[in-house]
Each structure stands twice: as structure tokens, then as C-alpha cells.
Amino acid sequence: MIEKDGLGNKFQCDSAGTAAYHIGERADYRMRQFGLKRGYNLTSISRAFHPNSDFERFDYIIAMDRQNVRDLKSVARNENDRKKIHLMTDFSSNPNHDCVPDPYYGGDAGFELVLDILEDACEGLIARIK
What we know:
Number of strands: 2
Structural class: mainly alpha
Number of helices: 5
CATH topology of the domain at 51-129: Rossmann fold
Strand content: under 5%
Strand order of the largest sheet: 1-2
CATH architecture of the domain at 51-129: 3-Layer(aba) Sandwich
Radius of gyration: 15 Å
Order of helices and strands: HHEHHEH
């Protein structure tokens, strides 16, 4: 979405997990499949969140659910770090979802829902940053 808006040279975006059990893996094949249907080529490899470098490098640290917010706040070094932490749905225009659900056990509809929520929230996030 950043590239689509012509903002690729202004934003740096990365993804990291708060747990280490998927480090080095690609996104779930179903998420890659549903992403491709919407024009997203999900090629990233999972990495762990690194508090020291990631809090320094990024202005926004965005979590998909409240447990991840708590996990991130627990490793924040100071109040400035804590202010950078947001819930993805904080940027959503749809009040029906208070977090991004885990789609992995919900079938195809779960992946479509996650993409719907993320597209909406990413539009809001980009608008906020602009």
C-alpha cells in the first residue's frame, strides 16, 4: 500500500514477531495465497522483534492484538518507547474489530477477514502518518 501511494521512498516498513517460534519462516502458505489474490506478494522471512534496535529505528511499533501490545510494553526501555506502541486496529475506520485475529485455525474466511482488517487499518495508518 505504501508503494501504491508512491511513498516507498518516504517510509520504511518491516515486520517482526514478539515470539521466536517462526523465525526464518515465510508467511503461512494460505496467507501468501490470499495475499496474491489481492496483489500482495508476501516474500518476507519472519524475524524476532529486537527492542533496542527496533525502538530506535521505527517511529511506530504496531501490534496485531492486545497480548502483543503487552509483550511490547514489557520490553520497552522507557516512556518514549511505550508511546510508539499502537494496536493496528487503532487506525481502522471499522469499529467492529478491536484486534487483528489469528487466521490460522479459522479457514479461508479467517484469512480474508484479516486482509480486510489490515487493508482498512493500513489506510488509516498511512493517512495518520501523512
